[in-house]
Specification:
Keywords: Amino-acid transport, Cell membrane, Membrane, Transmembrane, Transmembrane helix, Transport. The protein is about 70% helix and about 5% strand. The protein is mainly alpha-helical.
């Protein structure tokens, strides 16, 4: 029964990794770009949600707001921040420097945004972890001796619904066809009439939405937020993305769940100190035997998504 409980716990934890891993996968699969601001957007949604629930909107616009509304504000700010990153890591630099920005400059500039946003949050709220005022009732189900918290179960359902919807968007919609055309060959897509300046911001909006939702779900499920919360989640989401396969949406889902399972079982059998060794050992083992991951391809952006 204890093993079954740990499996359930790993599934719930993996759902958070899945959401962030899918956000990484979008930028890798469409733009061939590792967006370092993703962990910070995750953190930003949780911290802003906590601040609005505890103090209210800034400049005295409101008193403390109910936690669902506060988290909605945090998610909206994560989307807005992601669009700011798009404006300055892609649109401005691409216009000014052209193809020289293809890889290095957007990557480094996104790292700059990560450090700026994270340190602004630290200046505003300190570095201590804060208790998030989520649901006050004990929302725990006992299913045959296995305990499942309702918010965690709802999180898993929401994550799966998002992934299914995103898969449909990419495969069936005109927007999805435009995104896949950009992933295949941006210059050819532009010649064929795909409006890159209209579609690329959609990638960043979806990235902000996914990270914001992940941060909100984490705050509700674990009842705690901090300016450092994005670092651990981000690295493990990257591990899940690589294990599942770069650029593969469903690969990111499987990889995130595998990382969640690895972490939970490692803590159960060997203790929390060995988690990083186990997760990154899994990543290195995957790279040695199958560098493209379980569902990935050798060439980023070719036949992906």
């Amino acid at each position: 029964m204890l093993l079954l409980q740990q499996l359930v716990n790993s599934l719930m934890l993996g759902s958070v990794y899945v959401t962030v891993a899918v956000a990484f996968t979008l930028t890798i699969g469409v733009l061939n770009f590792l967006n370092f601001t993703i962990p910070t957007l995750f953190m930003l949604a949780g911290m802003v949600g906590w601040a609005v629930a505890y103090w209210g909107l800034p400049f005295g616009l409101s008193g403390p707001l109910p936690w669902p509304i506060a988290l909605a504000v945090g998610i909206a700010l994560a989307i807005l921040a992601s669009l700011v990153v798009e404006r300055f890591t892609f649109r401005y630099l691409k216009t000014k420097y052209g193809d020289s920005t293809e890889h290095a400059i957007p990557l480094v500039s996104s790292l700059g945004f990560l450090l700026i946003i994270e340190n602004l949050v630290r200046i505003a709220y300190g570095t201590d972890a804060q208790r998030f005022p989520g649901p006050s009732a004990d929302l725990t189900l006992n299913i045959g001796g296995v305990f499942v918290r309702v918010p965690q179960l709802m999180s898993l359902v929401v994550v799966l619904a998002i992934v299914v919807g995103l898969t449909w968007l990419l495969k069936k919609s005109a927007l999805g066809r435009g995104l896949r055309a950009i992933a295949e060959n941006p210059d050819a897509a532009n010649i064929l009439g795909v409006d890159i300046h209209r579609i690329v911001p959609v990638v960043f909006m979806l990235t902000g939405l996914l990270c914001g939702l992940a941060g909100a779900l984490f705050a509700v499920n674990y009842g705690e937020v901090s300016p450092l919360m994005g670092e651990d989640i981000g690295t493990k989401a990257i591990a899940g993305m690589v294990v599942g396969g770069l650029g593969s949406i469903w690969g990111a889902v499987l990889g995130g769940l595998i990382v969640g399972l690895t972490e939970t079982m490692t803590i159960n059998f060997f203790g929390a100190d060995t988690v990083q060794v186990a997760v990154w050992g899994l990543l290195l083992f995957t790279l040695f035997i199958r560098p493209q991951g379980l569902f990935g391809h050798h060439a980023i952006g070719k036949g992906k998504l």
